[in-house]
């Protein structure tokens, strides 16, 4: 981790984030819950880390937390209004808010896109190939956690490659 991040503080906090994301993945996969006693401290830890600008500025981290929460909250309520069903849980909002606090609002599109794509591909594959019942929910937290981890390590590279491909950068 030291060699990857270069900064010992960034490496240590990245390792801590990784372990919490692994725990949240297992818990959500087994219980369909992302417990507040992990997601909320994770959010605060991201804000504290970025008070010292370990991964981004504090302002970007604050906006990331707000935008992360509100983006999935909005999707939740739109889906519920259209279908009358809950499409995800509040823990997903809190996890994306925490990831926004760690990496800033700029990484949220990468995290949302990666988690949605991988979640959709895995979900469709589970239905087609393993007989997964369509009415049985598929936890979204593991995909958010994996996408957040990928964004932590390679988010800037992914963003640059996308912008270069689109001719924007």
Tell me about this structure.
The protein is an all-alpha fold and 169 residues long. The chain has one domain (2-166). Helices cover 78% and strands 0% of the residues. Helix 5 (90-103) crosses helix 7 and helix 6 crosses helix 7. The longest helix is centred in the middle third of the chain and has 26 residues, at 58-83.
Strand content: under 5%
Helix/sheet category: mainly alpha
Euclidean distance between termini CA atoms? 29 Å
Rg calculated over all Cα atoms: 16 Å
The string of secondary-structure elements, in order, is HHHHHHH
> How many helical stretches?
7
* Number of DSSP strand runs: 0
Helicity, as a percent range: over 70%
Shape: globular
The main sheet comes to: none
The low-confidence parts are none
Overall pLDDT confidence: 94
Tally of individual domains? 1
């Amino acid at each position: 981790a030291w060699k990857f991040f270069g900064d010992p503080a960034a490496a240590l906090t990245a390792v801590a984030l990784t372990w919490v994301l692994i725990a949240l993945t297992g818990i959500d996969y087994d219980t369909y819950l992302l417990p507040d006693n992990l997601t909320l401290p994770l959010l605060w830890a991201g804000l504290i880390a970025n008070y010292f600008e370990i991964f981004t500025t504090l302002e970007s981290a604050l906006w990331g937390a707000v935008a992360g929460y509100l983006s999935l909250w909005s999707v939740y309520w739109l889906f519920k209004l259209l279908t009358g069903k809950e499409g995800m849980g509040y823990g997903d909002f809190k996890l994306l808010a925490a990831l926004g606090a760690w990496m800033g609002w700029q990484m949220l599109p990468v995290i949302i896109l990666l988690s949605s794509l991988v979640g959709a591909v895995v979900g469709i594959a589970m239905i087609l190939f393993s007989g997964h019942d369509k009415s049985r929910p598929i936890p979204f937290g593991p995909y958010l956690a994996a996408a957040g981890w990928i964004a932590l390590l390679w988010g800037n590279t992914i963003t640059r490659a996308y912008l270069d491909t689109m001719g924007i950068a």
